[in-house]
Structure formats: C-alpha cells, structure tokens
Amino acid sequence: METVTIDALLAQVQKYNPKADLARIRRAYDLAASAHATQMRSTGDPYITHCLAVASILADLYLDEDSIVAGLLHDVPEDTAVPLETIQEQFGDEVAKRVDGVTKLSGLRLGMEQSQAESLRKMFMAMAEEIRVVLIKLADRLHNMRTLYARPPDKQRKIARETMEIYAPLANRLGIYTIRRELEDLSLKYLEPDKYKEIETLLADDKDDQQAYIAQAITILSERLAQEGIHPLDMRGRPKHIYSIYEKMVRKRRDFSQIYDIRAIRVIVENVRDCYVVLGIVHSLWAPLPGEFDDFIAKPKENLYQSLHTAVIGPAGKPLEVQIRTTEMHEIAEFGIAAHWRYKEPGAKRDPVFESKINWLRQLMDWRKDISDAQVFVESIKTEEFQDQVYVYTPKGDIIEMAAGATPIDFAYHVHTEVGNRCRGAKVNGKIVPLDYRLKVGDRVEILTAKKGGPSRAWLNPGLGLVRTSRAHERIRQWFKQQARVEAIADGRELLEKELHRLGFGQRNFDEIAKFFNYKSPDDFLEALGHEDISISTVSVRLFEAERAKTAPPEEAPPPVRPLPKVPETKFTVKGVNNLLQHLARCCNPLPGDDVVGFITRGRGITIHRRDCKNVLEISERERLIAVDWNQTDQAVYPVQVQVRAFDRAGLVHDISGIVAAEGINMASASALAGRKDHISIITATLEIASADQLTRVLNKIDRLPNVIEVHRVTSSGGDGEKRG
Ligand code: MN
Questions:
Q1: Are residues 717 and 602 in the same domain?
Q2: What's the sign of the alpha-carbon dihedral 531, 533, 537, 541?
Q3: Which is catalytic among the residues 45, 79, 200, 594?
C-alpha cells in the first residue's frame, strides 16, 4: 500500500478545492506529526501515515477544508498528550467539534458487547451532532481495514466482524457506495478467507474474457445509441464488488456463472428523460430478463440512491446487467450523503430536491442533538423507542425482520398465531431467555410451546413489556375475545336451557329461537344471552307471549283449571269507564304511544283519535270528547299450571300461597302429593297469571323457598312436567 505524503494530500485537495488554505492544512499535519511522533502503526509505519491516509480518503469524497484538518487531527486528543483545547485554539471551534465527535464515537466502545442495532443507533445519534464526524470515523475505519493485515488474527476477525456489522451498513445507510464496497470486501477477506479467495480467483481467471465481453457490449450499445441521437457522458464496466457476488452465491444459492452483475455496464447520461430512452434502446437490443428491472429513479432507495437497473440477455446469450443514471444520480450513488458537503465551485447550483431530502434525513437524525456526555447519550438511547428493524433467525435459518424492541412473543406471533398462543418460553442462541427479552440482530430464536392453551392476560400489560408489536397485540386480544365468546355461549346455553325448562317449553330448537330474536346463528344468540346483552327475562317474556299468541289459552288449559270468563280485548283504558266498545278512527290512524282522545259516538261506542286530528279539532261538541290512554299492561289473565318439587317440609304449601298472594295472583287450584317414600313432595298449582314478567317473578320467588328443588311451568306440550322424579 502506497503511503500518502503531505504534499500529495495538499495537491489532491487543491485539485477540487482551489481556495483551500493549504498552509492551515500543513499546520494541522505538523501538529499531528509532532503529537504522534513516538507512535508507530502495527504495519511498522509512523503513526502520521494513518492521519494522512484518513485525510486523503476524506479528500476522495471532496470534503471541505475543516474536515481534512479534522481528519489529520482525529486521533490527537485521545492518543497523545495534546489536549482538545490546543486544537480549538489553533484551528477553531468547528475543527475541535469534529475531532471531539470522533473521539466520543470511539469512546462508545462499539462492537461485540452491544448489539449491532444498538451500535448503529449510536452512530446515528452521533450524526445528529455532525454527519461529517461520522464520515471521518468511516474514513478512519477504512484505513484501519486496509492495514488490517498487520494485526494478529484474532484482532483481524474481531475488527472485520465489527466492520461488517456496523460500518458497512452505516456507509450503506449514508449511501457512500465507494466506502461501503471496500469495507465489505475487506471484511469478507478476513471473515471468509476461503470464499473470498475462490471468488477472487474466479474473477481473475475470467478477467480477460470479461473485459473483452464488456468492451463488446459497450461498442454495440454506443453504436445503437448514436443512431438514436443519444451520446452518453460515460459508459464503462461496473467495478467488481466481491462481497455482493459472495452474497448472491451464498444467499441466493446461485452459481458464479449465474450472477448477472459480474458482467455489468453503467451508462451515465445527461438527464432523466435520456435514462428512460436508453433503457428502451437496451431492451430493444437485448431481451430483458423478467423480474430483474428496478426503477430506483421513480422510487429512490432510502439512502437517496437513484438509478435504473435492468438485466438482459446480452451478446453471446450471456446475462448482462445495465445501470443507467444521470451525473447527479451517480454522484449520490458513489458518495451518498457526503455529496452534500462536497466542495462546490461558488455559484454552482444546488439541486433543491436533493437539498430537501438531505434536510429530511437530517431531521430524522436530529432528535438527540444536545447530549454531549457519552454515558448520558448511551443511556438516553436505551430508553428510546426505535422504529428500526432487527433481523433474527428461525431455527431453520430463515431471516425474519421485526421491529426493534420485539420480544420472543412478538416473534412467535409473527411465525404463526397458533405458535404465539401456545408460546410458553423461548430460547435465543440455544439459551432460555425471559419472555421480555429484546431480540437482537442475528439472534436465533426458538419458541417453546405448550400442546394447547392460550396467551396470558399479563401479555397485554404494557408495563411488563412482553409484547411490542401491534400484530401480536391484536392476535392476543382476538384470542381473549374468542375465549370470552366461547364462555358466553356456554353461559347463555345453560341459562336458556334452564329457563326453557322452568317455563315448561321443554326442548326447543335453538336455531328457531335465535331467528325469532333476529340473531344470525344460535351461537350469536347464546353469546348475547351469556353477555346479558339480552336478558333471560326478556327472552322468557317474548317466548311466552309468542306461545300465547299461537294458542288460545282457555282450550290449552289443563283440566283442573276452571275456565276463565273471556275478557274482551281492551286496547285502551278510558278513564272512569270500562268495557266500552272502542275502535280506532280511520282519519288519523293513531299508533300506540300517540297522544289520543276518545269521541263518544252515538251507538258505536268510542272512536279513538289522535289529539291533533283535524276532525277532533273541528268537533264542536267538546263534551263528547273523553280522555283515554293507551293500555300499557294487558289486563287479561291466563291460567298457568306450575309444579313444585321439594323435600317434605311442613308449611311449604302455605309459603307458596303467600308468595302467590303477595304478587296479587289468584290461585285457582292447588294439590299436593306429599310424604312419598323418597320424601319428595310434588305440589301442582294453577295460577291466574297476567304477564310473563309476573310468572317469571313468582317462579323465582318459589325457587328460593327452603327445600324447593325446582319449580317449573307445566304444559301439555312441554312433556317434562309429566315425569315424576
Ligand atoms: Mn484513527
């Protein structure tokens, strides 16, 4: 690896930033060189080579002068006797702030002891302070990776893993493809040396063919584009990215020969319109491979990346990838967020869309701006809710994406509702964990389930933090709802069966009853009963009335009951006058509840009108009007035979008579079969009942008498009452 000299660095900076204060950069170099004078790198080079290399990587990104200065000084306060104050005095607040930021990031001890997600979050926190701090940190890591060969093997693996888990994803998030690619390839080299070698060899063996092939494809395409009047600004083979090839071979289990982007060309054009024109021409020239087209122009990636990607069957029938983008898109693709701070010629126009996107990205990261202490910083992060994702594995190795903070229960419900319901414990990476464990990136999660059963109510307690995803919450709530329904149906069934027996209806078809009450299914009806959405007394009243409407009570009455005088159907109570012939006026058709008045006719009884009826208002003989009211309670009474089963007790019949009398019910007859050998008395009584309400009430009261086993109505259809126990 060639080392960067200060002169080379100054030349590099001057090239893209002619106004840079080169003397100031040299002063920073002098300070760093003297501060690190006694230190060596593990490569055997003086420490200052690292400072120069970092500054040079920042210059590759065309970063501003302060960033170059900070890059040179980034390790001074942490590793040397020169304090931050000296840097501040000599180079100003801005440089001091960035150097301090890099020092703090190192102080966070990112890595193995914390999860990748947590570390990544910390990096994002740091960005709130100053995104360029993170760029310096990335440059620092990149140079350390380039010189990793000089470290002992255990350090190599540790640092490579940390790079793969934290810094490469970070570079990706920031859209800095050039750095990401190099970090990934270097990490892979130490983490999977055999695979890395294999791919490197395959690429090298293929190299001449590849180059010839790419050159041929470019020639064909540029000729065709020229015919169409398109002259690309640049067209070349895409740089190899070993890690991406590795990923496709391993993750997608593709053979090396099946990987399209081994043969890839990149076309840079002037504007968006040309991007699509070129795409059309590429597709007319070579057949596109289905499912391989991505329009990242219409739908940019989160890191602002824009480009058209397509894969076609290129020359000689070999797959070829083509990426098409504008210069601006290419700049963002290569340098990502760093493009924002690139030195620009004064007066160079800035893309307002890009500006607004950057602002949005900044705001996203800006929410922890004023925390300066690293410890407080870490603590605050731990308590924050994050919408980030964690990636975990099933025991079979499938990757599952979950919201950060998700627990094993969330995971279980994600896998399957049934797994969630029966979840009783979990193993993470082979070890039992508590159910409030927060899943971390890379965890292998195994759910321990019961054979049957459901979730616990405690899972819904937000204070316990056992369930964090809305999906799991919803499933658990559903389970309890379903459970409540099952219980309510059972309760409803018990209530209804008991009541039907009591009222002497015997076995009834629940389907018919449900329909009668306008419920879609018997279960719905029973659930409503169980939940007391509909009261059992309402049900008995309605059933009782329905039965009465169907059958004429006197004929239905059992023999021992004396026939009751037929009561005329009275719809109204006319105050002070009973049993008058009544009919409803046709002119105004009064409905129950209407304010009504009676008109005494000559010879046809009373006509009932609405009080606001035009005819009533015009009646001159006001003395013939009579006050009437809708009759609320039907005054007719019906004989109902009830049967009481009870253990023998003196005075029981007397007690029953008392209840009946207290209700104002006439007991038409009563008989008792007492003192049988099983000591059970059967008392049969015929009650003149006015309403179903009244019947229910009196049955309930009798039921509560001492020694009463049960009481129910006897009907000829109801069968039950005939059995003698
Ligand atoms: Mn460093």
A1: no
A2: negative
A3: 79
